[in-house]
Design a protein that fits this description.
Strand content: 15-25%
Shape: globular
Helix content: 25-40%
InterPro entries: ABC_Gly_betaine_transp_sub-bd (IPR007210)
Number of strands: 9
Main location: membrane
Structural class: alpha/beta
Signal peptide: 1-20
Domain ABC-type glycine betaine transport system substrate-binding: 40-286
Largest sheet: 7 strands, mixed
Order of helices and strands: HEHEHEHEEHEHEHEEHHHHH
Number of helices: 12
Subcellular location: Cell membrane
Distance between the termini: 36 Å
C-alpha cells in the first residue's frame, strides 16, 4: 500500500486566503436558478482530511447538478471569519461540541449550522502500536521513552487548544515538548518513526486515514480531557440558504457513516499519491452511485 506524505504540504501551500465573494441571486433554486446562483465556494480546513474528502465529494456532486464550485483552503480562525463575513459559503468540517467551541463563541451569531453529517468523531492522542504504554496517565512517567516530545498539528487547531487547555495540565505533561506546526509535518514524523521502529506520540483524530496506513493505537483518556464523541457539522454563511436553498437542503440532510468515509479517504489518501483528487472522487462516485444519488434528494 502506497503511503501519502507529500500531498499535505501541497495543500498547505495552496491555502492562500484569496477570499472569493459569492454571487447573490434571485433566491430561486435548482434548474431555474439565475447564473450567479450556480456559483459557490466551499472552505476547507488545512490538513483535516475528512473535510478535504467531503468537500471534494460535494464539489463533484454539485458540479453534476450544474453548479460551479471552488474549494478554498484556509486555517481555522480565518475560515470561521470568512464564513461570518460572507466571503466563504460553506464548510463541511466543524466539530462540536468541544473542538471548535471557541470559534462558535466568537462567530456563532453570524454563521448557520446546517446540521451534523456524522456524530462518531473524536479527538485522540496516539502512539505506535508497540509502545510501552496504553494510557495518557502513563505518559509523564515514560516521557523519556518518547524523546520527551508530543508531536501536534497546527497551532490554531481545536485539537491543539484541547491539548493545551486540558490534556497537558490534566495529565502533568508540562515538562514534555509539545511541538506544533502542521498536520503534514506530524504525519511525516509519524511515518519516519514507523520506518525506524521508534516510539512516537502524536495528536490525531478519528476519522483519519492514518489509522489504516500506520500501526498506531489511541492512548486511553481516563480523565476525559479530550472530550466524548463529537459531531462533524456543515456550517454556512448566515444567508446561504437565501441564495442556494436547494444546496442548503441537500447539505442539511447529508449523512455519512465512518465506514463510508474511510472508504473514500483510503482511495484518496492511502491507495493513491496525487494532488488531483477529482478523478478519484468521480471513480468513487461511480462505485457508490446509490449513496451519491441520495445526497441530492
Amino acid at each position: 500500500m502506497k503511503l501519502k506524505t507529500l500531498k499535505f504540504g501541497a495543500l498547505l501551500a495552496a491555502s492562500a486566503l484569496a477570499l472569493t465573494a459569492c454571487g447573490s441571486g434571485s433566491g430561486d433554486n435548482g434548474g431555474d436558478a439565475a447564473a450567479d446562483d450556480k456559483k459557490m465556494n466551499i472552505a476547507v480546513f488545512n490538513g483535516w482530511d475528512e473535510g478535504i474528502a467531503t468537500s471534494e465529494l460535494w464539489k463533484a456532486v454539485l458540479e453534476e447538478k450544474g453548479y460551479e464550485v471552488e474549494l478554498i483552503n484556509a486555517d481555522v480562525a480565518p475560515l470561521f471569519q470568512g464564513l461570518s463575513t460572507g466571503d466563504y459559503d460553506v464548510t463541511t468540517d466543524v466539530w462540536l461540541p468541544v473542538t471548535h467551541a471557541s470559534n462558535l463563541e466568537k462567530f456563532g451569531e453570524d454563521i448557520k449550522d446546517l446540521g451534523a453529517w456524522n456524530e462518531e468523531s473524536r479527538l485522540t492522542v496516539a502512539v505506535n502500536e508497540d509502545a510501552p504504554i496504553d494510557s495518557l496517565d502513563e505518559l509523564a512517567a515514560n516521557a523519556d521513552k518518547f524523546g520527551n516530545r508530543i508531536v501536534g498539528i497546527e497551532p490554531g487547531a481545536g485539537l491543539t487548544e484541547a491539548m493545551n487547555k486540558s490534556v497537558i495540565p490534566d495529565y502533568g505533561l508540562d515538562d514534555m515538548d509539545f511541538v506544533t506546526s502542521s498536520t503534514s509535518a506530524m504525519l511525516t514524523e509519524l511515518e519516519t518513526a514507523t520506518k525506524n521502529k521508534e516510539n512516537i506520540v502524536v495528536t490525531l483524530w478519528e476519522p483519519h486515514w492514518a489509522y489504516s496506513a500506520y500501526p498506531v493505537k489511541n492512548l486511553k483518556d481516563p480523565k476525559g480531557a479530550l472530550g466524548d464523541a463529537e459531531g462533524m457539522h456543515t456550517f454556512s454563511r448566515a444567508d446561504f440558504a437565501d441564495d442556494h436553498a436547494e444546496v442548503a437542503k441537500w447539505m442539511g440532510n447529508f449523512k455519512m457513516d465512518l465506514e463510508t468515509l474511510y472508504d473514500l479517504e483510503n482511495l484518496l489518501f492511502v491507495e493513491n499519491d496525487t494532488d488531483d483528487l477529482q478523478p478519484l472522487v468521480k471513480q468513487w462516485m461511480e462505485d457508490n452511485r446509490d449513496f451519491v444519488d441520495g445526497m441530492t434528494k
